[in-house]
Amino acid sequence: MNPNKNLLIKNAVHESYKSIALGKTDKNSCCSTSKISLKKSAVEISNKIGYSEEEINSVPSGVNMGLGCGNPLSISKLSPNETLLDLGSGGGFDCFLASKKVGPTGFVIGVDMTHEMLRKARMAASQNGYKNIDFRLGEIENLPVADNIVDVVISNCVINLSPNKQRVYDEIYRVLKPGGRIAISDIVLMRELTEDMKADESLYCG
Q: How far apart are CA 103 and CA 190, in angstroms?
């Protein structure tokens, strides 16, 4: 894929999720529904994709926007003291859940390319006293994370949005400790897309 096309895709994704964070869109994402009764919809979506009522109710208000397509934490085998990295952390839903699992001596890093999502996540962390989470601005193809420091990498319906998926996996390999693991929930392409669909960057988040 040429660099100009990559940039168009990144811009389309950025604008889509910026609008979601600001509540200025009629669509949430590729994995969710309209903004009508958004709080109710987010809870319903999260229930359907594998989150318990206890998990949903344990996070700060507003961080669950129903943007996932599964529950990567359920297969992460996360333990106290570990360091977890969430690719495309959005409002921080999975990060806040992971924070409780790794405990005060563990650490959670959330990386997102959208300032508005980061602002929402950071505000929620600050207002609710989370001390073991760091939300960082960055792209999942160029992670602002040092080599070999992460025990677990998770991602929830985000890698599909990247125009350079091999680069994402290269970065995952770089930041993971030897023996580290990944837990990814994402959509899967079951058949080849048409050329028209490939050429439409808006479909990356439609």
A: 38
